[in-house]
Amino acid sequence: MITRYAYGILAMGLALPGLAAEQGEKAGLKAIIANTGPGGGNKAETLAKRQLLSDDSVFVNPEVRPQFVGGESGLKAYMTKNMRYPEKARQMKVTGKVFIRFVLSAEGRVTDASFVRGPGGGLNEEALRLVWMMPAWQPGYQHGQAVRVVCTLPIEFEL
């Protein structure tokens, strides 16, 4: 979004017709919102914001954060039920936190999961497996629309 905004300013300054026209449409949309008057402004504003959200946008901190079904206690129950401590890590007495970063789709499904850091010994792979197997979450929302959200989840392993 920031890149598009910066290009829009550049396009208007250089008078590039394609990008300047796109920015002009957005300015016209804002003018329509401003002139709707009391009562109709909220509906038009929400419609305009939804139209400006791109399907490929990924949010870090949306208005409504995604949540595991069942909340934090549901997430702990899921982890407890499905976690298999790797035998290699058990023998080497490896413990610690693994940080998994993933993107939740607008439907609440896990995509693009990878581990950021962890103690190794098979724990990183087990944490990644747990995240990939998670059921769908309640998605995050921005301006009333379900959006993709990047999340980082710490998973702790103890003997």
Shape: elongated
Helix content: 40-55%
By DSSP, the count of extended strands is 5
Low-pLDDT stretches = 1-40
Within CATH, the superfamily of the largest domain carries the name TonB
Tell me what the CATH architecture of the largest domain is. 2-Layer Sandwich
Share of β-strand residues: 15-25%
Q: What letter string, H or E per element, gives the SSE order? A: HHHEHHEEHEE
Task: Walk me through the topology.
Blueprint: H1 2-14, H2 17-34, H3 41-52, E1 58-59, H4 71-82, H5 87-92, E2 96-104, E3 110-117, H6 123-133, E4 140-142, E5 145-157
Parallel strand pairs: 1-5
Antiparallel strand pairs: 2-3, 2-5, 4-5
Helix pairs in contact: 1-2, 2-3
Question: TL;DR of this structure?
Answer:
With 159 residues, this protein is an alpha+beta fold.
